[in-house]
Amino acid sequence: MEEKYILEVKDLTTYYSVFDGFEQKTVKAIDRVSFSVISGDTVAIIGESGCGKSTLALSILRVLPESAMVLGGKILFEGEDLLTKSQKEMSRIRGKQIAMILQDPMMSLNPVFTIGNQIGETLRYHQGLRSQKLSERIEELLLDVKIPEPATRMKQYPHEMSGGMRQRIVGAIALSCGPKLIMADEPTTNLDVTIQLQYLNLLKDLQKKTGVTLLFITHDLGIVAEMCKNVIVMYAGKIVERAPVSNIYDDPAHPYTIALLKAAFGLQDLSKRNPIKGEPPDLADLPTGCHYHPRCDKKQIICSEKEPPEKNIGQGRTVKCWLYQG
């Protein structure tokens, strides 16, 4: 059976224009990024803070701040380029076909409106539901995300609920119109470990039930191991490695991926902690060649001179590193 891509990003380039004092600088947040997501798949985009993960999601949704601009590329959602859509057309897509779960539910939820009102807003806009049918659908969604007594909860305000419940409410809003793609940006950052596991299991169950495609944007490799089939590794606005999740853990290819795994392993056993040396580069003043070379213990002379091309190394894996160029 032929695989169907729900999302295809081709040579996407998104820059920010910022002022440093009186000097204007260009921040290369996303630089010629390409990847595809199969319908029904669960994909992780991982990397350190500032590598471009969140900007990638905002570019796909077309909700970038005024200081940002998409300078090139394509974002194909079910074959149609989102970059050619008007904002009116995008407003019909957001929430209905592509939804987003943010890491801080209090940034997503309005403190002055009830939970029912906020879930209902999306349903009223995209599905035209009103009165009794709207209330029934809201209650159904609350039960789907394992919130008891939905008739009571929908009348409450965000501050009356725990952090775990608020994150489930955000999930209910994302799922409300049956989207085909959900992007989750650090969805468990503010949850304790027990609640994290419950929330991830909930998303798994909902994916089995609805067939929704999940795109996780995270630096938490525990989430990746628990949830995802495929992994995209980003560094300094570029993709440096793509692979099935088992390959990433058992046989990582790029030196940066190896360093990420060593650092994450050290969080579980501090005696074996091996943090990545150095700091991520300034995206307004990037190193020449491979952007990772100043921190890399396997660098060669060519690494500082030329950017490595992407190399297919088999088993659905690609890597951008001169070590694999023969």
Major β-sheet, in short? Answer: 8 strands, mixed
**Helix count, DSSP H or I runs of 4 or more residues:** 11
Task: Provide the CATH top-level class.
Answer: Alpha Beta
Q: Tell me the number of strands.
A: 12
Silhouette:
globular
Describe the overall structure.
The protein is α/β, with parallel strands linked by helices. It has one domain: P-loop containing nucleotide triphosphate hydrolases (Rossmann fold), CATH 3.40.50.300. It has eleven helices and twelve strands. It has an eight-stranded mixed β-sheet, sandwiched between helices. Strands 2-1-4-5 form a four-stranded antiparallel β-sheet. β11 and β12 form a beta hairpin. α4 packs across α5. The protein is globular. The two termini are 34 Å apart. The model has no long low-confidence stretch (mean pLDDT 91).
Task: Outline the fold blueprint.
Blueprint: E1 5-20, E2 23-38, E3 42-46, H1 53-61, E4 68-77, E5 80-81, H2 87-93, E6 98-101, H3 105-108, H4 115-127, H5 131-144, H6 150-153, H7 163-175, E7 181-185, H8 193-210, E8 213-218, H9 221-227, E9 230-235, E10 238-244, H10 245-250, H11 255-268, E11 310-314, E12 317-320
Parallel strand pairs: 3-8, 3-9, 6-7, 7-8
Antiparallel strand pairs: 1-2, 1-4, 4-5, 9-10, 10-12, 11-12
